[in-house]
Amino acid sequence: MRAVDLIQKKRDGLELSKAEIEWLINGYVAGDVPDYQMSAFAMAIYFQGMTTREISDLTMAMVATGEQIDLSAIAGIKVDKHSTGGVGDKVTLILAPLVASFDVPVAKMSGRGLGHTGGTLDKLESIKGYQIEIEQEQFIKQVQDIGVSVIGQSDKLVKADKLLYALRDVTATVDTIPLIASSVMSKKIAAGADAILLDVTVGEGAFMKNIEDARQLAQTMVELGKAVGRKTVAVLTDMSQPVGTSIGNRLEILEALDILQGKGREDVTHFICELAQIMLGLANIEKSIDEVRQHLENGAALQKFEEMVAAQGGDLDDLYRPVNVAYQVDILAEQSGTISALPALEFGLFAMKLGAGRAVKTDKLDYESGIVFAKKVGQSIKENEKIATIFSNIKISDEMLSEFQKNVKIEDVVVKTKEILEIVS
Ligand code: URA
Fold it and tell me: Where in the numbering of this chain does the Pyrimidine nucleoside phosphorylase C-terminal domain appear (predicted)?
């Protein structure tokens, strides 16, 4: 076979065989197919798409390029969760211990943030001492002992995705359903859980900008999961504004701690309880939202979170420390009205410029910096009332202040918001 012939076949809208897809993926991981040919192939997929059969073969070919984790030593139905990326998305930090507090084991591998999106690993690493790289045996033992562990994805898992994702990131080929579905599901399948909750984000801060594309991505991934015997549910969630009130690594840990103590904002708390209810359902445990919420209010979920942090070397005394920054700047409303938009992409990029995110993979993070919103979309605000506070170690220029203000939309309208838009199962 020759890579050029397979690129041409896809470019011309023809269907590739399983053998052809495997040949290309294996050749790429072995270094025989160079980056420039793989880039051309990714772009051909971007324009021509793939059939369901091709996506399934691509996913399994990717799984086979690395180790597969065996979680069978952990008793019970292991549930995993994955988000397709967002701004201010601290959901895993709360959801994992919350679900574990119902004795459902959560063995989760998470990723880092890039560009405007944040990563759970970066947030956890902002906790002094927290180890994200632990041996597989220790990972499994921790889940056996306390029911939850969140670590970094092993280098040995899905080698093809590591290479391909980095290539897609610089060749404008990330936001295409076949490549997102195979990237997400190859990692989830290799990570070994019995059941998977997929959080497919929708909106201007997400890869999927509209509900139709998000639905198609969700359906594709649910089918992929089911085809390999993993119970899979996808939830389409709103990413037109940031999740919760904070963006930034330590700031999101602090918000997660508030939610874990039942002191979070009602909308984000309810949203996470709904996700927990679905995850518990995947493990055959039926709970009402009130029963789930009780584990936030009675400290059960917080206790699991603290046990996880301590087990992974995190400093519990440091955990609740407020952020330590050189500058705190309040942003006040320039007019009265209702907040009609807080665009997630723009505020994600703003937080990135403060140092809370990475423009490129090698950037160093400032864990303390970020934004805390005092108001969210749909809330009314009076002129000169606080919209948000910027926490920064760089001086906020007038230009940055006006950029922030420009992105806050205040109008005389009624705006309804919804966190979960649809469930695909
Ligand atoms: N998240 C992933 O893991 N892969 C993608 O391609 C997009 C989002």
Answer: 338-411
